């Protein structure tokens, strides 16, 4: 995905809740977007969709993270969720 400057601005605006919660933008490239607060990181990488679909996907993920912030920054919840997804995919 080629992230143009307009898309980067949209992503950064949608990410304001992360900045307000102590996260910093670590990296934004065509392949990786990383926010971290030294304990947790929100990372989106290796998307293979069309550019607009990728931007929509990233914005949807950020919207979910904002609405469910208390859960998504809870390490135990994240580990349990990952285990459930891995079990489902088997």
Describe this protein's structure.
- By secondary structure, the chain is an alpha+beta fold.
- The protein has one domain.
- It is about 55% helix and about 15% strand.
- It contains 5 helices and 3 strands, in the order ααβββααα.
- It has helices at about 5-15, 15-20, 50-65, 70, 75-90, and strands spanning about 25-30, 30-35, 40-45.
- A hairpin with a 3-residue loop joins strand 1 (about 25-30) and strand 2 (about 30-35).
- Helix 1 runs parallel beside helix 3.
- The radius of gyration is 14 Å and the shape is globular.
- It starts with a helix and ends with a helix.
- The model has no long low-confidence stretch (mean pLDDT about 75).
What attributes characterize this protein structure?
globular; 3 strands; 90 residues; three-stranded antiparallel sheet; 5 helices; 17% strand; alpha+beta; 57% helix
Which helices and strands occur, and which strands form pairs?
Elements: H1 5-14, H2 16-20, E1 24-28, E2 32-36, E3 41-45, H3 51-67, H4 69-72, H5 75-89
Helix pairs in contact: 1-3
The chain-level structural class is alpha+beta
Q: What series of H and E elements makes up the topology?
A: HHEEEHHH
What form results from the Cα inertia axes? globular
Strand segment count: 3
Major beta sheet, strand line-up: 1-2-3
Portion in strands: 15-25%
């Amino acid at each position: 995905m080629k992230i143009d400057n307009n898309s980067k601005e949209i992503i950064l605006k949608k990410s304001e809740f992360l900045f307000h919660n102590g996260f910093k933008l670590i990296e934004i490239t065509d392949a990786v977007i990383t926010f971290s607060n030294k304990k947790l990181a929100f990372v989106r990488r290796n998307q293979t969709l069309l550019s607009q679909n990728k931007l929509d996907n990233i914005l949807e993920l950020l919207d979910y993270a904002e609405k469910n912030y208390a859960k998504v920054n809870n390490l135990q919840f994240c580990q349990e969720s990952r285990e459930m997804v891995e079990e489902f995919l088997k």
